[in-house]
Amino acid sequence: MRVVPIPLRNAFDHVNYLLVCDAAKVAIAVDPYDVERVAGEATAQGVTITSVVNTHEHWDHAGKNAEMKARTGAAVMAPRAAAGTLEGLDRLLVDGDMISVGADSVTVRAVPGHTMASIAIFGEEEGGIPFVISGDTLFGAGVGNCGYGGHAPTLQETISGVFASLADETRVYPGHDYLKRNLAFTLSIEPGNAAACALASALESTDGTAPHFTTIGEERAINLFLRTGSHEVRTNLELPAPANDSDVFLAIRKRRDHW
Ligand SMILES: [Zn+2]
Known about the structure:
Blueprint: E1 2-7, E2 15-21, E3 26-30, H1 35-45, E4 48-53, H2 59-62, H3 65-72, E5 75-79, E6 91-93, E7 98-101, E8 104-110, E9 119-125, E10 129-135, E11 138-139, E12 142-143, H4 152-163, E13 171-174, H5 179-189, H6 194-204, H7 216-222, H8 231-237, H9 245-257
Parallel strand pairs: 3-4, 4-5, 5-6, 10-13
Antiparallel strand pairs: 1-2, 2-3, 7-8, 8-9, 9-10, 11-12
The chain binds zinc ion.
Residues 56, 58, 61, 114, 136 line the site of zinc ion.
């Protein structure tokens, strides 16, 4: 399978995706926000969009379903837990479901926390490289907020239970490109983080048109929410001892809300 990121460079820094099966010339469109751009990219790639998949129910991920369906005739799929919020769904997705795209397929996993309905999509790129389309659950050097239907302790369980156990080489494709700002947040709490520092300066020297997509291995080095055991992080958060990993995660989430 081929992952085609479509960075919108709009006010929300959305990244839309096509998951392409080249053999069958078909694709899944994930969280299409700019219908013109996504449909245009499918045409440019020579593929037909047969499915639209929403990672969660927020309007900036699922609000263009009807427009996409009218334009492409694609089947619209979203998490079952979001069915009360979204209309016109053709298939309701639950943990463990598989979605076919031509000769390829991807797997759905429940990743509640940013919203309680959130899912992530797992697959393999050419060469057997694993990837995850993480929606608003895991970002480059960050995680989703919990202020719009989410629950921070549940997000902590999802990050430590699902994402922290992924292989280092897993590529992370998030719903927004917040990497630059998130790295600045990392360095505000962990200024001695050499990997975050190096990546932040590398990004300064690019023109920013193509997002840098991280791997889980990189995230372990630069994402505070996966670094709750770091001595520097714990010291700078000034938590009352003894704090467990969950306490540290929640303190970082709170700090990021007001940062
Ligand atoms: Zn969202």
